[in-house]
Each structure stands twice: as C-alpha cells, then as structure tokens.
Amino acid sequence: MRRTRVVCFGELLLRLGAPGRELLLQSPRLDVHIGGAEANVAVSLAHFGHEVAMLGTVADNPLGAAATGELRRHGVDTAGVRAVPGRMGLYFLTTGAGHRASEVVYDRADSAFALATPHDYDWNALLAGADWLHLSGVSPALGPDAAQATIDAARRARELGVRVSFDGNFRPKLWQRWQGDAAGVLRELFACADIVFADYRDIGVVLGGEFPQEDVRERVRAAAAMAFEAFPQLRWMACTQRATLSVDHHSLGAMLLGRDGTEALAPAESVTGIVDRIGGGDAFAAGVLHGLIDGQGAEAAVRFGLAAACLKHTIPGDFNPVSVAEVEALIGEGRFDVRR
Amino acid sequence: MRRTRVVCFGELLLRLGAPGRELLLQSPRLDVHIGGAEANVAVSLAHFGHEVAMLGTVADNPLGAAATGELRRHGVDTAGVRAVPGRMGLYFLTTGAGHRASEVVYDRADSAFALATPHDYDWNALLAGADWLHLSGVSPALGPDAAQATIDAARRARELGVRVSFDGNFRPKLWQRWQGDAAGVLRELFACADIVFADYRDIGVVLGGEFPQEDVRERVRAAAAMAFEAFPQLRWMACTQRATLSVDHHSLGAMLLGRDGTEALAPAESVTGIVDRIGGGDAFAAGVLHGLIDGQGAEAAVRFGLAAACLKHTIPGDFNPVSVAEVEALIGEGRFDVRR
Amino acid sequence: MRRTRVVCFGELLLRLGAPGRELLLQSPRLDVHIGGAEANVAVSLAHFGHEVAMLGTVADNPLGAAATGELRRHGVDTAGVRAVPGRMGLYFLTTGAGHRASEVVYDRADSAFALATPHDYDWNALLAGADWLHLSGVSPALGPDAAQATIDAARRARELGVRVSFDGNFRPKLWQRWQGDAAGVLRELFACADIVFADYRDIGVVLGGEFPQEDVRERVRAAAAMAFEAFPQLRWMACTQRATLSVDHHSLGAMLLGRDGTEALAPAESVTGIVDRIGGGDAFAAGVLHGLIDGQGAEAAVRFGLAAACLKHTIPGDFNPVSVAEVEALIGEGRFDVRR
Amino acid sequence: MRRTRVVCFGELLLRLGAPGRELLLQSPRLDVHIGGAEANVAVSLAHFGHEVAMLGTVADNPLGAAATGELRRHGVDTAGVRAVPGRMGLYFLTTGAGHRASEVVYDRADSAFALATPHDYDWNALLAGADWLHLSGVSPALGPDAAQATIDAARRARELGVRVSFDGNFRPKLWQRWQGDAAGVLRELFACADIVFADYRDIGVVLGGEFPQEDVRERVRAAAAMAFEAFPQLRWMACTQRATLSVDHHSLGAMLLGRDGTEALAPAESVTGIVDRIGGGDAFAAGVLHGLIDGQGAEAAVRFGLAAACLKHTIPGDFNPVSVAEVEALIGEGRFDVRR
Amino acid sequence: MRRTRVVCFGELLLRLGAPGRELLLQSPRLDVHIGGAEANVAVSLAHFGHEVAMLGTVADNPLGAAATGELRRHGVDTAGVRAVPGRMGLYFLTTGAGHRASEVVYDRADSAFALATPHDYDWNALLAGADWLHLSGVSPALGPDAAQATIDAARRARELGVRVSFDGNFRPKLWQRWQGDAAGVLRELFACADIVFADYRDIGVVLGGEFPQEDVRERVRAAAAMAFEAFPQLRWMACTQRATLSVDHHSLGAMLLGRDGTEALAPAESVTGIVDRIGGGDAFAAGVLHGLIDGQGAEAAVRFGLAAACLKHTIPGDFNPVSVAEVEALIGEGRFDVRR
Amino acid sequence: MRRTRVVCFGELLLRLGAPGRELLLQSPRLDVHIGGAEANVAVSLAHFGHEVAMLGTVADNPLGAAATGELRRHGVDTAGVRAVPGRMGLYFLTTGAGHRASEVVYDRADSAFALATPHDYDWNALLAGADWLHLSGVSPALGPDAAQATIDAARRARELGVRVSFDGNFRPKLWQRWQGDAAGVLRELFACADIVFADYRDIGVVLGGEFPQEDVRERVRAAAAMAFEAFPQLRWMACTQRATLSVDHHSLGAMLLGRDGTEALAPAESVTGIVDRIGGGDAFAAGVLHGLIDGQGAEAAVRFGLAAACLKHTIPGDFNPVSVAEVEALIGEGRFDVRR
What we know:
Six copies of one chain form a homohexamer.
Chain A: E1 5-9, E2 13-17, E3 29-35, H1 37-47, E4 51-59, H2 62-73, E5 81-84, E6 89-94, E7 103-107, H3 112-115, H4 123-127, E8 132-136, H5 144-160, E9 163-167, H6 172-178, H7 182-190, E10 195-197, H8 200-207, H9 216-230, E11 236-246, E12 249-258, E13 263-271, H10 280-293, H11 298-312, H12 324-332
Parallel strand pairs in A: 1-4, 1-8, 2-6, 4-5, 8-9, 9-10, 10-11
Antiparallel strand pairs in A: 2-3, 6-7, 11-12, 12-13
Helix pairs in contact in A: 1-10, 8-9, 10-11, 11-12
C-alpha cells in the first residue's frame, strides 16, 4: 500500500545549547541540535512511518549540510532543500530548571531561508505526489519574501488537491522586525488549511475576536466556531492547554474540534521531570496529523497527539523520534519501569 | 573477628548506556558500567565490610579484564573468575524520564559465561571457606549449561554447610530463547536456599499457585506460606513492593517473612529524582542479607535493605557502593541538606 | 550617579565536584567552580550592578590565578586580592539526589588565606572609597590570624563610616580545629555590623540564649530582639527558613527584622528540581543587601533576597550570576515556559 | 545527466572506541562510529557525488537503526538494507600512538548479517538500475551463507551487465573461524570483477603464487600479470604500499595496473599526525573507483585515490566524508595553512 | 612605576569549533573560544604585565557578555566596550591535521561591531591616558562604518601623541563583500602607524609594488624600504616567515626592520605538534610590541615575538595567555621535559 | 610455581590534570589519575604477572579510597595501605606540547603519608613473605618522619633477606622544604639496595663526586664504579638517557651496569607522538626489575625496561598497565599497523 506523502516547508535551524542546566557559556561548550517547527513535524511523521519530504533553503556550507544530513538520518527526503550561499539561522538555548525559565536567544536574521524569494521555489514540482503540505506561522514571520513563498505554497497545494496543515505558531517579535501584517498573512494561510493547530489566542490575532470566557476550553470552543465560520474549507482545529507549575513540571491537555461538531478531549497529563520542552507543540501536531491520516477517530488522534507530546518532553533536542508503537505503549499502559 | 565470607556466582555484564537522558546513539557516545545481578550484590556486601568473592567466567580480553578490575576496585576478590576465549555479555541502556520508560537491549547470547560448562567449575575449591553463596535466577536462564552449573553450586553449598541466598529474578525472555524448564530448574534452586528474594509472581512460576488477593501484601503472605511449606529448608522470603508513578518517581516498600511467622515491614518510601533504577533490587537483597548476617532482627534487616535500595536509585551505574554508615544515616535522620 | 561600592573580604575556594550525580571519582573527572561565602556575595552584587571589590589572599599559582580571573569575569575588582606563595583552599563536592545528601570534603587547611597575618592587610587603603564591607563567619573560623584580620577589618570599617554586613555562617568543625573562641570572636563582629544574616542558632552561639519556642518564626523574633538589645549599632537581622523534603526538593522562606520593629516575611517557596544548592544562603544575603542598598522597603528586600536564592538553586556552581531584571521577573510573574 | 549508481553489499559494524589515546575502558566511556569496508566505500562515493545504495542486513533494534541512519546522513540510500531480529556486529578499538599499535577486538560473530541466508536477498531487484556493484573479501569470510550471498551478488551483477568492484581485504582469522575455503571463494569473486583492490599477498592467496622479488612494486607487477591471465574479465588491479614508521607516521604510495599494460604510480606520501588510520584502504578504493567512473585516466585516478586515503588518516571514524573539491585541493596545492 | 597603557580597538568574535580533530558537527558539539585579532593582542599584553583596555562594540546578550567577561578574566579592562542590541560575529572552525587543512566558516556579517557608526565612539575619551593604540586590518574590512571608525581612531591617536601599532591582516574576502577600497583605507592607516606588522604582500596591496626577489627576506627588505619611504612617521616593520610542511608542522622565522636601518632576525623554529595555529600572528605582534615597549633592542624584541608565537601554537584557543617568564624560559633554555 | 612477591612503599598521589593540551583551568574541568613513583612500579609489576602489594598511608576519605581502589583494579594488594584522618597529596598537571613544557604544581604538603610516623608501620608484618621491597627517593624527601620510615623499611628488609630496589628520584625542592640532609639519608638507602635506578647526578648528590666526562655514558660508567665501591651490597645500577627534542619528541636510551662488570645498553629509541611522559622512569624501573626477577640476562632486562618505558609514553596517566606480551611484541617486531 502506498504510504501517505507529507511535505513540510520551513526553515531548518541550528540550536546551540548550554550543556545540562548550565547558563549559556558558563562552560565553553555548546551542544548542537537541529530544529525548526516544520522540520520537527517532518521527523515525527517519518518515524510514524509516513513518506516525508522537507522543502526549503539552507546555507551551502557545513552547517547547512549538517542540518539536511540530520533530517536524512531520521528518514526525511531532503532532495527538495536548496543549498545556496548564505548563513544558517541559529538559536542559542539556555535550559532552565525549577524557578528559572529556559531562554532562547535568536540569531536567525538574514538566513538563507529568510532571504530566499518566492521565485526560488517551483511549487508544482515540489508538491508533485504530495498528499499533505505542512506549514507553520514561523515561516511567514521571517520577512515579506518568506511570507509570500509560504502563501504561494499553501495556495498551490489547495489548487493541486494537496491537503494543508497549518500550525499558527504566532511569534510577535519576528513580525515586528519587518512590520509585517501578521493578521492579513495568517488569514490567507488559514484560508487554505484543512487543519489548523491554533487556540483562541491565534484566532484572536487572525480574526480579531476576544474570548472573555473564564474556562479555557470555552474560549477554545468559541474560537473554533469563529474559525469554522470564517474559513469554510477548514475541517479541524487542534490545540493543547499547558500550565507551567515549574520549569520541570507542566500540566498538558489537548482538544481536537471538528467542523461537524466533533469535540475530542485528551485529559491533562502531569508532565514531570521535563528534559526538553522545545518541540512539544510540533510533536503534538505531528501526532494529531498521524491520527487523522491513519483514519483514527478524533479522540484517538488527539490522545495520540498528546501522548507524543508527553514523550517529546523527555527527549533532548527539538525532534521527537518515537515510533507509533512507543506512543501507543504510553497510551495503553502507562507503566514506567525498565523495559527489558 | 573473622569477617563473614560471601561468594557470588553469576555473569558479569558490560552496560553500554546513552549519556544522560539521551536516546541510544542520539549522540555517538556510550557510558560504560559493569553489572550483573550477583555482582551487584557482591559489591554491596564488600562495601558493607564483608569478605566477598565473585565466581564465574569472563572473556579473556580487555572487556573481561575491565569487568573483573572494576569488581576488585570495589574490594571484591576475583581470583575465582575464569578468563577464557569468548565474548562478554553486553546490554545497551536508554535511561528514560517522565513518561518515557527506560529500555534495555540485551546482547548477551553466547557469552563466555553462558557457554561455560558445569565441568569448568570446581565447586569444592570455589566454595572453600565460604559462609554464604549468593545466586540468582538470571544465571540458570542463560542456557542448559549455566542452569546445571547453578544447580551444582547450590547443591554443593548445601552439602558443605554453606548457606544459600537466592534471588528469583525471573526473566521469561531468557528462558524462552532455549525453551528451558524454568519452573523445574528454579524449584531445584529454591529447594537449596536459606533465603529467597521473591514475591508472589516468582512463587507462582515455581509452585504454580495463583494469588487472587487484592492486597499485595496478602498475596506475598500467601506465597510465603506456600514456599515455606514446599521448601522445608527455607527460612526467609523477602521482597519489595514497587509502584511507578513516573519514570523518575516510584514508591518502594518491602517485606521480610520468616518461617517462624516473623513478618517485618518497611513502610513505602517515596523515591523521587531517580538517577538510576537498575540494580535497585540487588541493593535490597544485599541490604537484607547484610542485616541477617549482622544478626540484626528482621525489622532492622528489611529497613536496612529498603534504605540501601533507596540510595541505589540515586547512584549512576548498577552497583550500590554505599557504606553501612551511609545507609544507617538515611534510616536514622532523613536529613537531606549538604553534609559538610 | 555614583554606584555603591561594596568590598568583600574572605577566602576564595576551588570546588572540585563529581560530574552530574556521580559519586566522587566514580569516573575520573572533576568539574571545577570557584566559590567562597564572601566571593559568592561579591559576584551577586556585581551582577546586580554595584561596584564590587574582593579583598583577600590567594596562592600565587595557576589555581589562585584561576580564582581571581573568574571573579574578574563576573565584574569583580580583584586588585585587592594578594597573591603569595602557598596553597589554595579546596573542597570536593559530591552532589546528591533523592535520598542521598550532598557531601563536602574540605581540604582547606593551611591555605594562603588562612596563613595570612593581620599585618598583611592595609585596611585604610583597602577600605578607601567603600560604602559597605561584607564579611562572614567562615573567615574568622580559619585560625587566629584570620580571625584577627576579620575583626580588624570590621572595626576599621566602623571607624571609617563604612557599613558592615555580616553573615554568621557558623561552622563548628572549623572552630574546633584550632580551639578558637567562636562566641567571643563572633560577638566582636556582630558588634560592628549594621546587618547580620543570622538566625536563632547563631544568636544562641553568640549570646548564649536558648529559644524554646515551637514556631520557628517565634524563635527568630526572640533572637532578633536579643540581638538588637546586645548590639546597639545593629539595624537589621535577616535569615531564611529551610526545610528539606528530599535532596532535590526544599521549602524556603525568609524573614527580615529591623531594630525599628519592622518585620518583613517572604512566604515559603517550594524549591523543586534543585540543580545546585551551594551558595543559596549567600545569594539570599546578596539579594537582601541589594534591596536595602537600593532603598527598597524591607518587604521588597526580603522578597528580592528569597527570589535570588530560589534562582541560585537552579544554577550550577557557587555563584548566582543573575541580573536584577531576572530576579524581578521571577517575583513579578512566576511564568515558567520558555522565553523567546 | 544521470548520476552513476553504485550499490555496495556488506556488513555494517558499530565501532566502540576508547576516547583519544586512552586504553580500552581506561575511562568508562566509548565513542561510537559506524563502519564496514563496503559501507566506507559507499559513504565516500556518495560524498563524491554518485548515487549510492547500501545492501545488506542489520539488527532490527536501535543499534541497527543507528547504523542505517548514519549512512542516510551521508546521503546513502538504505532502502535495500534489511532489518531483522538479531544482533549487530561490533568491534572495540583502542587507538595507539607512537610505539603502541592500535588494537581491534572483534565481537561480530553471529550478527544479523552473518546469519542472513542467500535466499534473503533478491538480487534482481537489488541490482536493478545499478552501474556498479562493490564487494569486499570481508563478507564471504563471515560464514558459508554470507559467502554464498556474496558470490550470488557478484555473478548476478555480471549477468546483468553491472560492473563489479572487489576489494580483497583478506582476513585469515575470520576464515579460520568456520574453516572456509578462502582461496576457492575469493577465486569465484575475482572471476566476476572488473577491478580488484588487491596486492601480491591477495593474489598469492587466490592463485597460489609466490612473489620473491625484492622490490615491492615488482611483486605487484608480477601479481597483476598473473591475475590478468587467470581472470580474463578483469581490467584493473589497484593497491597501496604502506610502511609504518610509527603509529602516527606512515608512508603511503599506490599503484593502478591495467590489463592493457597501463601502469600508474602515485608517489609515496609521508602521512604524519595520523588521527585515524581505519578505513584508509576503503578511502583509496573509493577514490580510484571515482576516478575511473569519472573517466579520468589511470594516473589521475590513482592519485585521486591516494589523496583521498591521505585525507582519511586525518578524520576520526571509519568514513571519509570528503568532497571531490577537497581531494583535488590536496592534489593541486598541498598548502596546509588555515583556509578562511 | 606607571605601567604602559595599551588600548586595542577591534571586533570580539566567538569561535565555535569542532572538538579535537573532528569535522564540523561530526559529533553534535562545539567548543567555544573568544577571539579577534586585536583582542588576542590585548590578552597577550595583559599577561605580559601591561595595562590593557579593549575598545569596541558587542551584542547586549549573553554571547556579548561572555566575550567581554573572558577578556576581563585575562585582566583586560572592558569598560570601553559598548554593548548594544544586535548580533555577535561568529566563526566556525574545523581544526585539520596532517594533509587536511583547518577551515574557517565565517558568520560575522552585520555584527554589532560591523554596524557601529563612527559616531558611536568618543575617541578623546577612549584614548585618554593611553600610550599605545593597537589596530588591525580586519576592522576596516568589515564595512564603511568600521573603516571610518578605525581611521578616526588612528588619526585621533596620532594627534593625541598616542603611538599606533597596526597589523595589516589583509583579508580580501571581507573587502570584496562591500567593494571597499582596501588600498586607500589601509594607506591611511599605515600613514598613522609607528609600527606595522606587515610583509611584502601587505605592502604590495597598499603601495602597489611588486617584489620579484627570489629570497623571501629580500622581498621583505625591499617592501620595508618602500614603506619607510612612503610613510615618514613609520619606525618599525615586523613580520614572520611561515612555511607549512603539514598541518601539524610549520617552520616559523621572523624579521624586525627599523627606519634607522636596523634589521633583526629570529632564525626559523621548527614548530611541531601544533595544537592551535589560530592567533599565532597576533601572539607575534604582541611579543614584538612588548619587547619594544619594554625597551629591549630589536633583536631581543623579535626573538621574544617569535618565542611567544611558538608558544601560541601549543595552546588551544585564539589567546596566548603566557607570561614574560614563560616566553623567556623558552628563549633561554629550550628544555622540554616536565617542569616540577 | 610461587609468584615473586614485591612490596612497594610510598605515597599515593592524585593527579588533577587539564584535559588534552589545555592550560590548567582553561576550561573548568580536571581529569584525575592516580600516581606516585612507587605505585607506578607496583602497577607495572602486577601487570607483568607478579604478586604485588602496596604499603603506605592514605586519607580516610573518598579520595584515599579512590587511590587504593585504583591500585586494586590493577591487581595490587592494598591491605597494607593504612587509611587515617588527613589529606591526600595532590598534584596539578598541565600537559605541554611542541615548545611548551609540561608543568606540575604540587599540593602535597602535610599529606597523611607525609605525616605518618615511623611507629605507624610494623615492618616485620608488612614485609612478611616479600621477595623484594621497592622504594624511591621521593618518600624520604617528604619530611623527617617519612625519611625515617623509609630507612626503617630498607634496613628491616635487608635484615629479613628481602631484596631492595631503590629509585633515586632526587627532588631538591622537596628536601629544601624541611632542610633535610638529602645526601645522608639517600646514602643510608643506597647502602641497603641490591639495585639502584640512578645516574651520575644521583651519585653526585649521594657520594659527592663530579663527572666531567663529555660522553654521558662515560659519566654513568664512572658513577657506577664509584657506587659499587661505596656500597658493597649493591649489585646493579640502571638508568635512562633522555634527550628532549620537543615536548612531543624525545630520544630515550638506557644502561644497566653490574658489579661484575656487566654493561648492557639499550640503543636510543626515537619516542614520537608522546601522549603522557609522566611515569616513564617508573615504567623503566619496573621493566628492568621484571627482567631481573624473571632471570633474563642484563641485556634482555634493559631492553625490556626501555620498551616498557616507550609504551608508557603512549598511555594517559601515571601507570603503565601493559603486559609482558605487549612489551615483547614491541621488542620483537616493531610493526605499527592496526592489530586485528
């Protein structure tokens, strides 16, 4: 049986992190991981058994080669990643603990990805054979060229019958750098999506609404209703509910809402002993997407997504290289002793 | 005063573990520890001040030399460990966190220990001067030769008046590899033991009983009664009760039951911030054994065993190199600030 | 505006610590940090934006150079640190976990600092331009010369109108080594202080009182009253209340009491996921001192001190290199998700 | 233009090496690299820009996944690598220095590759589209099944018009383990090859000749003449001449001899400051193969091969991930200052 | 006696290097050092006992703070380093070996230093009290603003009677990025210098001459003659002669030529076992400068410079933190056994 | 056959070394090895298959335990090592390279060993069963108590018929610390020795002679003649001749001279790519001692000693854990390619 082919378009980043719980450059060493919101989803889906390809642009130097090589290691096709003169986007991470929050220092301006123009991508060729296109709100926030390229990709996908998955990932600081019209651009992208990963805050940015409801889930329900009304092609909206008790201890629940009125809840998990919280949202998105691609019902899909996200919190790096069997084992048993 | 001499027979293993909480080979490095159920007990007892000797077989190469050298470092006599051409048993460990269970990949088939024949051991010589022989259910599970060697050791010890300590350590996967008669072999070993470390599940395997009681402790009591009836030489049965709230947070209690009706309970401890859970059961066994050798009462012995096991969870590696004073400090005070 | 100049007199120590949660020399590597009660305060105050100078004596070798270099890295002026032939004080640290307490093995006898005589310091020159002098009870405990030098410094400061901050830091083992009159020496130092970091146990040592009150805070109130009576120049007394639930989980509250009857409480924080507890008290002292220097009220100062101490528990090493903004962010929000 | 497709059949091994110049397990850590004679060639050719696929069998566990993932990282197609229950072949490496030779301890018996039967490979499918098949003498030495599979591959390739490259790599110890008929099996493989990487010692094994000539190159010439006579399809024979002045300093020259009488020499290079000598021969083979595929003349090809081998000695691990441009830069200039 | 005060103006860079002799990101870790041509000189001079201040601009983030902190650690005053929003210049280093040259990948475009305008520096204040200003040809190559700032500094120094030391450091790639008039700008800087570190290639760029002499030293003599003629204020010209036998083995000699006809030669040293060649030229410049400041004759100065450079090749990182005594010990004895 | 029992009396030291070729505390980490001149000999002899026991005194803390544990790991009996309150002797090592000599910073004053009194050792018991006692000139240099204990040991050995091996190891700095009569004490020790490891410089110290001969070997011959005359019990004198071409490249030859006129020379080896030179002399002493114990002739013994010393230069740490087979392989072949 043919595997579902998912293509992900976005920037590959190098994370340069302080070891363990050290402050940045407290000792003169950095641990390197590869990441990027869309790449994180790509790697998850490849480990879930799908055919996955990454699309984008990297620097034609050893750093860019390391980024694409790492994706290939996880089984992602990188033939659609351009390598051009330029620089790679970087981010420096200090992982917190207890009362000290983790901190990211971005150094991603003027990366090869951000400077690529819409003309650099041949979407007909890049989307050929794809069943799904996954995008996120990070790419269009990087500048007008990246925004246009992202919109082009989404529209062309829609025209070609490729389903579109869009993760809101609203980052105000990035939009402010170039005074971009976040609401306008994101609205165009929402207007192409079959599924959005977004909560009431994203919908508020895109559609201008306010959600005064006291209960978080009520706010999400209202936002979803507004989204389904505004975007007639939209079929699903999914999001997590996260509470941070300390840096090492979060509570994480999730919802998946359908245009047809379906509402699936994954009850909140107590996420303790957190190793690496980065990429948790992307792991959730990949998990839900897998569930839906796999034809599971909404409830199974959102539970799969939440369990995948829980596992991500235990794994160093941005990626969540876990198999379907490992996610299902967590859902099924919840036994935590050594597996021999 | 002459120190009690304990000899331990079993396989030495090399643990090759992913650093920290990384996935296996996520970065290209492995941290190495030496282990093995019986060796773990040997090291504990040596640190408790007893005269301890390891018996067994290793490969005559740098890996085998590293294993015996590490035991000597901890004060264990390794003159009784044969070094022959062959390979060392290995296991690869991925230490989990939070919702992600730790995983062991064994690569121990056809090790020098597993291939040693009963004729390779001269039990009269090896047991000379010993007060106790410690064995576990891992050795006989490795194959017919290892099973016979273990039975030979236990029987000869019994004949020589050497007391026998036996840790059930039932591992179905190992027995399945060679279709061994686990129940039959283990029954022979139980039949030689003065003390067994076993709970109702082990007794179920060995004697075929079922324990439908809702309360775990009731099941243990019933199993002990059955064991004391089946094995007239058996004087003690001890076991822990473990519940896993997450990979980093367990609850651990313990029981020690005597043929004479003695029942000693160590109330459950909340074991948090777990560093390394491997070897926890062996640390318990060594602690109880120390208590009994030391002439402490049953309650003191089981509390000592549980405290030793709690400390093991905080120490990287399979061994539990803590002193009697350190265990007693934990029992006595339970103060956790820096000791200067 | 002129920055407040604080000078700190005390010993610089090298900490040689086992990596992670390993036992000391379990693997053949030591991680090095620089510390010392007064140096820890110096580094904190420098990061809070004050002009800070360290006074003292180090060995004229690469270890002493590393210690002063590390202070300079954090912005502390080290021109007043003498480098003379001799040895550096060392301490070896095993960081505990769960049920296993951290342990310090001191190797600081006969250090260059401990052997320096009162005549080696020209206090008029060293205190020139200073607004505050910070001392602790560790220095006088190192020997008669160090005790006299500390008293000289405190008295000269008082005469020159330099305010004196004194952290009790009572260490009975150090005093016993040379049979020093702890109570007498400390009394002289308390008699020079504008602020003391001390609780009822310190006051008991110095003034001989007993504090039978059941409630800890009542004991502190009684001790403060006794101190304000005995030491007419004393204006403030501050201390923390720490409870250790496990090695990784403490509860930490704080009080600041004024001669004028002011009593400010910082409610107890649950300090989880502790990375490094060493230097927590010094971080508190620096935080309170900053608050008072900054002209904040008592309540703001004690909350600032407690928040600084909480952050210290998350940072490897003895120092607490956090900015005012970082401490205030913790007080203000208490949000623990990644900051991008 | 279509890229040349090279398929390589052989075992993937995990190298577990002592860090730096330490003895094995002198400190409790191992550095991991992936290797295997044929995989080394595959990775080189992929970095030289060819389309490369690996064929073989790995264990269906995290170690096998790491091995194939690492090949993918270097751009090698691993779709033709089977993953089945079993174990991975391992080797433990102690890297020497000065007067101390490097040492390999093999632990590769009964690996998933060695136990795979000839029926496990569908050569028609695996060779479809290939231009070249690369094999080595290591695979058939692993046991009768592996030997037959290798012969099957070579013969089927010949039938399908796929050119065959064969690296002698004679390892007497491996053949002795199963009493294999090395000469007979290797003769069958030589009889299928278009190019063999072999010197007079290999030819001596295969054809029984002796080469008493004093000059090494004369011996190689005589062996080549004998080989071209015995194997009418054979077009090229290539080999290096290595002299070891110390562990860190070798001399390395090379020859490429053609059936048509071509003789190309690459003059001996002084290879100093050796970082990792493992894989040097495979790097040479890949370099010569690239030169021939690329249509360079014999002299250019052998110089390219030798330069690639020289670079390999400077790179940690078994692979030689250098580009054509990097090899050519070495041939062209031989300037050794920093490139900015 | 007042110490000579030297101020150095230039960019601070973070070096992110592959560990040991690995390829970049071969393993996922980077070792960090701070560097920059002028900062390297600053650190050397501070270790030689001079009063040294760094001038420049860094990013107001943890990376910039790490850079200035590291300079302070080495005793350099960083009060004149501005911290502003922006990014730090980075470079990625792969250290070569044997036949494989080291490679630098720069990622320094649009750094906070490069974007600083001439108006950001108040030269009268920054040069107050200085005896020497050290500059290099790297700064003006970074862009028109940096070029103008460097020229301003040099001219103002000349007006204020501060001596100017200028290291040519010609980097064509940097000038090409912004099409800068290298010859014109460098000429203006040469025209302010009391001493230039330059050889015939630099003079060729600046004055357009060609130096066809076969002997390198003749070329240097001719270039010096031309320079002394063109720049009447110039008193000294110094340079090294380097030959690279392999990446780990260089030959290094040096010359110092005076306007008065002085010619001092330091005979070529065989530099073997090279640990880190970066910063060798800066170490030489600092050594010569120290010799001249110290009032040594030309021959002593150039020998001191060459010995300092030789030591630099043995020290990881860009800095050369060696004392006068250590350099003199090398000149004096050349004994290489352990010093106890 | 009974193995020869050798007992070694001396101090165990902890070496705290900068990693790789870094300067001390350039990065905040130290690598730890155990050493000590006599312990180094003990470990070598244990690896050569002899029964070896260490005698001495360590601190009763984790550092002392690590030192004795490490000796046990290498097969040395540590039952005769006392553990008492106190401190361990330390030394800090910076390993040089090229032109930069390695440097040792000692921190060994007032160690538990140095403070032990002659009455702390019961020589009759400690020497029981011994065939040889090995001592060195380091122990008596540590203070009057250590000097007396060493003399006691040597004299008692002589009385008991235990042969005495003495390594001069003259360290003027240590003797100066306590104004000890080096010549007098060493004379007493030479007067007890069957073999001394010493060259003309040691003999000059002990017997006051001068050796003006130009040829080093002539000086050694003259010194040996003087020693055999002065010390009638002395049978052998052995020493190396070392020349240091650079830190990484030495030349090392050796001589063994007998009272009976035997003179055995081991021609100088070029020792390149030096990893760790510390302990080279001890490795030589152990090698010669092994040769003599083994009944080899003088020439075989001195060649064995030199080959052992060459191997030591390639091994990190103070110990030389190589087997007889490994030393003989070096003597026999001198082949330096990988051993598989």
